[in-house]
Write a structure and sequence with these properties.
The protein is an alpha+beta fold. Helices cover 41% and strands 18% of the residues. It binds 3,4-dihydroxyphenylalanine.
Length: 348
């Protein structure tokens, strides 16, 4: 009996040593130490022995079984530790490696330009007014002295909004003039900047573009005020105090007289060629650039919003921003402004 216990013990120890997994150990545990395992078999066979032998062999069997139970538990722990080692090896990472920094964004060229203009005109006392991108025909055209049958509407190839009668994507920022005047009394000094839309798309036209509208209404406002404001603004925008402006007569239904504002070319400084004699491509060698439409607010427009056109006069102007941004930052393709290619955008 005693040797049988020793044999069982050494068998189990050997098998445990070779065991590689929890389930193998569990198997051995059941087979040797379980309720119907080999050790309990010995216990059951004790009843055939003498009292003396029952005591000594029983004691030995019990002690050995307890000893082996401890060893089995240790084996479980060993396997668990080994499994942790494998995980630690496989999933190791260096927590001291610096993280990947998210890139810091910045304003788009056009948004930045809009902010700059708000500052430039803000210094001259102009507040910023806003209007909706989807506008009524009433504000976009009618109130601006452009009735439905007026040929000037043809100049602005319009996106009409499907299923919404008399609504357009605004073709100009001029309707903000009307909205602002309806809500305020003179004196008025506002600009309004934002998106405008026309069915126009080629190398130099995008169906969505940006405008800056200006409006000043009060007593005794004249073209001289318009000249001063435009000249000062353009000098600040192009950061060149030598910039000059000139007016040519033009036509817009909401102003009388209507004007075209030109400024000296900021690239060749009005010379038509650069300092080293290269013909200026931007102004096509004429030394001037068309920058804005403008004029004295038409008395009819003033009356449309309930102003006394005998008492008040005013000037208005509207300029396209996209080309100015291109000139200022020497961008040679309009599309670059709208494609949102990060390789372009992050240069500024
Ligand atoms: N709204 C005109 C356009 O988009 C530009 C313009 C011309 C605006 C003369 C004005 C103005 O305020 O007085 O073609």
């Amino acid at each position: 009996m005693k040797s049988k216990i020793e044999t069982l013990k050494s068998q189990l120890l050997k098998a445990l040593k070779a065991a590689k997994s929890d389930s193998e150990v569990r198997d051995l545990e059941v087979r040797y130490l379980g309720r119907s395992g080999k050790f309990n078999e010995i216990m059951r066979s004790l009843k055939d022995l003498s009292d003396e032998a029952k005591r000594t062999v029983g004691k030995l069997a019990n002690m050995t079984k307890t000893e082996l139970e401890v060893i089995v538990q240790k084996k479980y722990a060993e396997l668990e530790m080994a499994a942790f080692d494998v995980i630690a090896d496989k999933e190791w990472m260096d927590v001291t490696v610096p993280g990947t920094k998210p890139g810091v964004g910045h304003r788009h060229l056009i948004s930045k330009f809009i902010e700059d203009l708000e500052v430039v005109f803000g210094r001259m006392g102009f507040a910023v007014a806003e209007g909706p991108d989807i506008e009524t025909e009433h504000y976009n055209f009618d109130q601006l002295n452009m009735p439905a049958d007026h040929p000037s509407r043809d100049m602005q190839d319009t996106f009409w909004v499907k299923n919404l009668k008399k609504m357009v994507l605004r073709t100009q920022t001029s309707p903000v003039q009307i909205r602002h005047m309806e809500a305020h009394e003179p004196p008025i000094r506002v600009i309004s900047l934002g998106k405008t839309f026309r069915k126009d798309s080629d190398a130099t036209h995008s169906p969505m573009f940006h405008q800056c509208e200006g409006l000043m209404v009060g007593e005794d406002i004249s073209i001289a005020n318009l000249k001063a404001v435009m000249t000062n603004a353009l000098q600040q925008i192009f950061e060149d105090p030598a910039i000059k402006t000139r007016f040519r007569t033009s036509y817009f239904p909401f102003v009388e007289p209507g004007l075209e504002v030109d400024c000296t070319c900021p690239i060749c400084h009005g010379e038509g060629k650069t300092a080293d004699g290269v013909p200026c491509r931007l102004c096509k060698q004429c030394g001037w650039l068309e920058i804005a439409g403008a004029g004295m607010v038409h008395p009819k427009v003033l009356e449309n919003v309930g102003y006394d056109s005998k008492k008040y006069t005013g000037f208005a102007f509207g300029m396209g921003l996209d080309r100015m941004v291109m000139i200022k930052h020497r961008v040679n393709h309009l599309r670059l402004l709208f494609e949102n290619d990060l390789r372009f955008i992050t240069q500024f």
